[in-house]
Amino acid sequence: MRASLLFWEQVLVGLAWFSFCLWVGFLFEAWWRQERVPGPLFFHSKVCLTLRGAIQRPGPYWIKAGKPVHGVLIRARPQRNADLSGIDPGERILKDRELTIPAFQCLKVEVRGEVLNQGVVVLPLQSSLSSLISLLELTQEADATLLSKARKLKDGEVIYIKKKLQPELLKNKAL
User: Fold this and answer.
1) What residues have CB less than 8 Å from 47, skipping those under 6 apart?
2) From edge to edge, which strands make up the β-sheet containing 59-64?
3) pLDDT tens digits for 160-175?
4) Which CATH class for the 106-174 domain?
5) d(CA 150, CA 26)
6) What phi and psi values does residue 110 have, to the nearest 5 degrees?
C-alpha cells in the first residue's frame, strides 16, 4: 500500500511540474514574440503607447493593457491647436501602438478696438490682414487705413483697430 501511495505522489508532482513548465514556456514564447498576453492576476502586462504630434509631452507612455487612451492624453497635454476629433478617448490599448495627433491648420487672432464683434477670430493659415478686415464689422469711427493689409497674420496675435483722428485735432497738430 505504501508503494502505491508513493507512486501516485510522484505522478501528481510530475503533473504539477509539467503544467508549470508549460506555463513558463507560454510566457517565454509571448515575451520572445513581444506580444502582451493577458495572464493571471500576478502577471500584469504593459503596453507602450507612443504619442507624437500636437502635444506638449511627446514620447512613450507605458500603461496596463486594456486601459483607455483618455488617461494618457491627459498626461501628454494636447496643445491648443491639437485636433482630437479623430481620436476615441475610450479606446482601449491592447498592444504597443503609435498615435500621431494632428494639428488644426488654422490660426487664431484676437481683435480689439473699434470693432462691433470683438474677440477671437479663426482664420486659415497664411491669411493676411485684409482677409481679417473683410470679416469684421467696423464701427463708423474705425480707421483701418493705418494697418498694413498685405501683412500675414500670426497665431495668437492681437490686432487693435484705432479710432479715426478728428479733423479739428489734425488742425491743432499742424500749428
Assistant:
1) 36, 62, 63, 64, 65, 93, 94, 95, 96, 97
2) 59-64, 46-53, 97-101
3) 888 887 666 555 555 5
4) alpha beta
5) 67
6) -95, 135
Q: How confident is the model at residue 42 (pLDDT cuts 50, 70, 90)?
A: very low
Under 8 Å between Cβ of 71 and 63: yes
68, 47 in Cβ contact below 8 A? no
Q: Full-prediction pTM beyond 0.70? A: no
**H-type helices in 33-157, by residue range?**
69-76, 129-135
Cα–Cα distance for residue pair 91/77, rounded to 1 Å = 18
**Cell reading at 154:** 500670426
Of 123, 97, 119, 101, nearest to 110 (Cα)? 119
Q: Which three cell numbers stand for residue 91?
A: 479606446
Domain ranges of the chain: 46-101, 106-174
Asked whether the CA dihedral 46, 48, 51, 57 is positive or negative, the reply is: positive
- AA identity, residue 93: I
